[in-house]
Each structure stands twice: as C-alpha cells, then as structure tokens.
C-alpha cells in the first residue's frame, strides 16, 4: 500500500500496522505505516478525534491535589533543579523527574521565560512555580478555559500556539509533539517566539527501540490514535533543520512504563501493589540500561535556535 510520508514526503509501498487503542479500551483499531526512508511510524488518517480520544479523565487533564504526593514531588524537583535536598535525593531513585532534569540542563534561572506547549492542566508549570520560577506559562488548545492559580496568576492559556507572540528563553514539549498534526509549522513558530540562541526541548517517544522490537503492535507508546507520529532521530534532524534549529544534545529518558504498559499489567486484576512496586523498580533498572545504549523508547532533543 502506497503512503506519502508527512516528514520526508516520500511516497512508497510502506509496511502497515494495525494498532488497537489501549488506554481507554475502546477496542478500535487504527492503521499506521512505517516510512521506509525516514523511519517515522505515522497514523494513516489523522481525522480520528472525537470525544473519546481525549476524555476528561485523560492523564494530562487530571488535577494533582494529593498534598503528600505534591510535597514529595516538590522535594524531588528541588533536588533535581538546585541540589541540596536530602529527601529529594532519595525520592528521585523511586520517581524520576525527567522533565525537570531536561530543563535544569539548560537553566535554573527563576526569571527565565518558559513556555510549555501542550501542557494539559499545567502540572509542569505549577511545579515550576512552586520551585520559584516566576515567568513560566503553558498553552493548550484543548482545555476548557484558561487556568489560574489561587493568587490569580495565569498557569495555562487556552489558545492555539500560533496566537502566542510573546518571546521566551526556553520552550518545552513534554510528550506533546507526537500529538501535533502540524509539527513543522509548530516548530517554525516556536523558533519565531524564542530569544536569539533560545532553546527548545522536545521529549517524545522514539522509533525504533528495544520495546518496539519486543512488543511491536502492543508497544504502549504508540498510543493510537493520540500519537499521530512516532518520529525517528533522522526525522527530528530533518524537521529541526527546516525550522532553523541545531540539535545540541540527544539522550534517552525512558522508564519502566515501556514494559509494564506494554504488557498491559498496569490495570491487571490480581497483581498486588507490592508486586507492582517491585516490578517498577526492576523495569526502571532495565530501562536505565537501555537508555545508556540509546535503545530506550523515548528521547530528549535539545534544540538551539540557529537564527
Ligand atoms: Zn519519511
């Protein structure tokens, strides 16, 4: 079956995979093809969105109001961003904070202008605010309305990225870039609203990986139909260059989820919480090994604005 790739525009007889929606158990199947040229796995028709694609209980819309959990996350984030937090030092062994690690590698300046694109209900921005960052905001077109904190400060703007014209030092895509139909236009606009030599951080699932080879159609991070494109390194290199970015750094930040999620055990009945915690630690160790050899199922791309 001939398909035209959205990244490299090559029209070829590409292999097609039938992927079942897994997160909400809709039992629907979606066809994806794998571009022979740039190795991007992409959904054939991206007109699948209906009310069931991103229901209200989709994880990035959930509010995190568990005080103890938020306290522990704050300690960990504080350690990852600024160091000098003994409790945070221990917590990060059990619950990593890859979004903070990625940002901390670029800046810990609390006045830095930071825009998080596709941020859902703004959990990442709230965490940055609680670390003392005072110039950060999220944008997401799919939330109900703008989100403010208790003091009236804007957390998330319900808007299309293209209507954002303020200038930022850092722009982040924390597992949102793979959901965006117009990825090229999005990255071009991100470039336009960055300061000179500004940085864009893209954290995405990547193709291929050990998890893809092991689980194929059951690899949890295909997440049909929400993930429109699972890009390869060469695909991101092409898109970055065409958006006037230079790739400064690439590294893996995959975790236990590629295994537990793919084996559909997260929601299994009969598996005790203790077993899940042990499995999580076990699979996190395995994920760290894969990350070290570049075979994890997600990567971080640090892009520097070239002009
Ligand atoms: Zn391609």
TrEMBL record:
InterPro entries from the xrefs? SAM-dependent_MTases_sf (IPR029063)
Domain of life assignment: Bacteria
Q: What's the protein name?
A: Methyltransferase type 12
**Species per Swiss-Prot/TrEMBL record:** Polynucleobacter campilacus
């Amino acid at each position: 079956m001939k398909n035209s790739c959205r990244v490299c525009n090559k029209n070829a007889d590409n292999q097609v995979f039938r992927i079942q929606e897994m997160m909400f158990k809709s039992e629907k199947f979606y066809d994806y093809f794998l571009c022979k040229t740039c190795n991007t796995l992409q959904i054939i028709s991206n007109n699948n969105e209906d009310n069931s694609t991103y229901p209200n209980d989709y994880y990035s819309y959930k509010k995190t109001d568990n005080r103890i959990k938020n306290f522990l996350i704050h300690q960990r984030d504080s350690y990852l961003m600024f160091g000098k937090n003994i409790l945070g030092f221990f917590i990060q062994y059990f619950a990593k904070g890859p979004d903070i690690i990625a940002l901390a590698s670029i800046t810990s300046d609390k006045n830095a202008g930071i825009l998080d694109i596709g941020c859902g209900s703004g959990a990442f921005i709230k965490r940055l605010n609680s670390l003392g960052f005072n110039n950060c905001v999220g944008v997401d077109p799919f939330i109900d309305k703008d989100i403010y904190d208790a003091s009236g400060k804007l957390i998330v703007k319900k808007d299309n990225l293209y209507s954002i014209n303020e200038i930022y030092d850092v722009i982040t895509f924390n597992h949102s870039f793979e959901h965006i139909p117009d990825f090229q236009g999005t990255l071009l606009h991100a470039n336009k609203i960055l300061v000179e030599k500004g940085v864009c951080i893209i954290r995405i699932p990547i193709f291929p990986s050990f998890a893809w080879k092991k689980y194929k159609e059951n690899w949890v991070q295909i997440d049909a139909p929400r993930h429109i494109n699972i890009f390869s390194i060469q695909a991101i290199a092409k898109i970055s260059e065409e958006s006037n970015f230079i790739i400064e750094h690439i590294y893996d930040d995959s975790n236990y989820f590629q295994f537990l999620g793919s084996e559909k055990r997260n929601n299994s009945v009969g598996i005790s919480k203790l077993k899940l915690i042990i499995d999580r630690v076990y699979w996190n160790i395995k994920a760290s090994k894969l990350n070290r050899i570049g075979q994890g199922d997600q990567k971080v791309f640090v892009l520097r604005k070239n002009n």
